[in-house]
Amino acid sequence: MEKDSRPSWDNPMQFVLACVSYAVGLGNVWRFPYLCQMHGGGGFLIPYLIMLVVEGVPLFYMELAIGQKMRLGSIGAWSAISPYLGGVGIASVVTSVYLCVYYNVIIAWAFWYLFHSFQAILPWAECPANANLTGRLEECELSTPTQYFWYRETLNITSSIEEVGGIHKGQALCLLLAWMLVYLCIVRGVQSTGKVVYFTATFPYLVLTIYLIRGITLHGAMNGIKYMFTPKLEELANPMAWINAATQIFYSLGLGFGSLIAFASYNQYHNNFEQQAIIVSLINSGTSIFASIVTFSIYGFKATFNYESCLERVRLLLVNSFDMAEDSISMDNMRHWMAELNSTHPDQFAALYHKLENCSLESELDTAVEGTGLAFIVYSEAIKNMPLSQFWSVLYFFMLLMLGVGSMLGNVTAITTPLRDSKFLSRHFTKEVLNGLVCLLCLLLGLGFTTRSGNYWFAIFNDYACTFSLLLIVLIEIISVCYIYGLRRFEKDIEDMIGHCPNWYWKTVWAGVGPVIIIGLFVFYISSYIMGGTPTYHAWDKDLGRSVPKVYPVSAQVVIVLLLLSSVCCVPLTALYVYCKKKDPKEGVVSCPLTSKEVS
Amino acid sequence: MSARLLFALCLALTWTSVLMQDLCTEGASDGYKVRLSIKTALGDHAYEWNESEMFLFKANLAYAMRRHFNMQTYNVSNIIVCDETPRVSFWFVVANPADTSQLIPGGEVEEAVRKSRNRINNAFLLTDQTLQFLGIAPTLATTVIPNTPPWLIAFIVVICVVSAGILALLVSTFMKKIRKEKGVLEEEKLENVYENGIPRDGPEGKAGSLNGGFMEDERHTQL
């Protein structure tokens, strides 16, 4: 009776779009282009596609199969596979909570920039004037207007993680709005989510296409695209390229959070998820490549713009110092003039030498940025130089919003689905109230990221909250499905659902290749964390107008360790709890001292 | 007599101009260097820098001095220019109209220029960056700070729309629940009717004691 009354998607298309909307997120736009740039441009596609086929699609397939078969959220599904594995589901939920709390802050920032785009002059286009109106603000002069707007106006960042500062009211309001929007989309569970994903899954593609057309037609875009597509194949020998490709596939598909299990649990029993898994994974990777073409054309434009501004500054310096007519030196004959002036006025030229900048297009293109720096600083710098910049700005930040909200729907569903499965909670709270409470809790926790030092804590969560625990969760998942639940039993379930057995390729990956790759990644993470020494972060120094590296204080390092361990230790703790409960069914006690008999 | 007068006048003029030229030197403490970047600013519509343009500059500066001191005594002849270069840059000093051998101190000149900077710029179709007075800081336009920041307006609009959406969904869910509960009550009532296996109300409805079953039989038996 329970299974029949479970809500479900109106049609399989909604499920596919929900998965696409969840998987295609901000990481496709701001992490993949960075990795491409770091690891030899077009050549990075080779490890990326290999990892997609070898690791991404099979794991995605497996999670969808589990969700559709068990028809429960992550906690229920893993408890059904084995009672001792309920902890895996709880670990997924805890990781999802961490993700929800910090991810929505990005949407708050996107809202902030979106609202600030409705002005005649974009606020990050120029530095504001200083107090006595004689020049620009010093902090802004030393850095750039876009960096100033990000660090000072948007974040009002303190100079280190220890200085907390107060809550930035504008950010707190935007975070409230972000959570209200997410609540609006999930308030009725899959019925409301199913309708929203039509928009959140398709709109970003529309914007990316418009941006592609605009980007390619910008002056200098070809420099960026050429830079991206010239493969530097020697990078493939670097193991980091392969590790980064594996982790990118892993996180980009959103494995291990329980969202895929939750989404699939609302499917009809005989839904053909094998085809859907392949389609969604291919769409996700295709979107990454598409987004990186757009990003590189924008990079090319920005780099060319900066390079030409640099040349212009050098030209002006020469013309002003030697009092020559304005049009005597142009971009083409600048080198010739520099040599001539060096020979005719050597002393003057020598005095000038340290002021002459070395303008290089290559070095401009080499500055690789990822994450919030790319999305909010580099892109907004490129946008402010485009004609009709307000329109492009609104379009871009609206796209970021849709990408973020699409992923958030999956993240929050991963939390609400297991909670709804619990009989206790669903009896006392209606769907709407439960979803509202989850959103409210995450909002209150997320307010910590709207403080002045919030961005530093955001970086901690971004780097440590989900990375390590996900690897462990997926490793336990794949091993328990293959060896505890049994590969044959799993095979039979899939045959029951879609009508044919998974072929030898899937089985080989699940049983052999997949665990090996994940163990490899796992070992690499642990060793790099241990051998990396004290972790550092980049703090904004307002007197220098740039970021300076600083070491994390003890309190932050404690938080890092807690983050890494807190979700992971749910697994053994829950197993222990279940074990104890089984031992004393009559008493029903939670804690049980192990007697010497039990220990032996 | 007139020839002698003319000669004396010419001598006096040359002597004053030589004296005035001595006042204007490169790096004069009371003078400023001016640099114009006409081709950068105007591109194809750039005008040529010639004596007339220089006259306009002197006139503008004289106007600036008049405006600052609120005196009508300044004239084009009080502005002394020297060291012109092909870059279109030169030095200028301002002589006191009351005593042409004295210069107006640099501080006063700076203030006068700052006050009328906008007018001077516009006379030449240039900006603070393309008509540079080296050493005189530009006066930036005061940023107009509106009472409500524009972003807040957009925020309020969006949050109202989202709140309205949430309320609409919650209210409709609530109404549906109430309707369902009413529907359940109705169903329960009908179920109670058939509880004893005997239709109390019958096909005619809630009318009462007529036993519809027998009614039907009667119709048949009439045939």
TrEMBL record, chain A:
Membrane protein topology class: Multi-pass membrane protein
Gene Ontology CC, one term: apical plasma membrane
Name recorded for this polypeptide: Transporter
Binding site for Na(+): 23-24, 28, 252, 284, 403, 407
GO molecular function: L-proline transmembrane transporter activity; metal ion binding; proline:sodium symporter activity
Swiss-Prot/TrEMBL GO biological process terms: glycine transport; L-proline import across plasma membrane
Lineage: Eukaryota, Metazoa, Chordata, Craniata, Vertebrata
Keyword line: Glycoprotein, Membrane, Metal-binding, Sodium, Symport, Transmembrane, Transmembrane helix, Transport
Subcellular location field: Membrane
Keyword Membrane among UniProt keywords: yes
Native organism: Aldrovandia affinis
Stored Pfam families: SNF
PANTHER family tied to this protein: SODIUM- AND CHLORIDE-DEPENDENT TRANSPORTER XTRP3, SODIUM/CHLORIDE DEPENDENT TRANSPORTER
Top-level taxonomic group: Eukaryota
TrEMBL record, chain B:
Record InterPro entries: Collectrin, Collectrin_dom
Subcellular location per the Swiss-Prot or TrEMBL entry: Cell membrane
PROSITE patterns: COLLECTRIN_LIKE
Chain ranges passing through the membrane: 151-172
Start and end residues of each Collectrin-like domain: 28-223
UniProt GO BP: positive regulation of amino acid transport
Its membrane topology: Single-pass type I membrane protein
Signal peptide: 1-20
Keywords on record: Cell membrane, Glycoprotein, Membrane, Phosphoprotein, Signal, Transmembrane, Transmembrane helix
UniProt region (Disordered), positions on chain: 196-223
A single Gene Ontology CC term: extracellular exosome
Annotated PANTHER family: COLLECTRIN
Name of the protein: Collectrin-like domain-containing protein
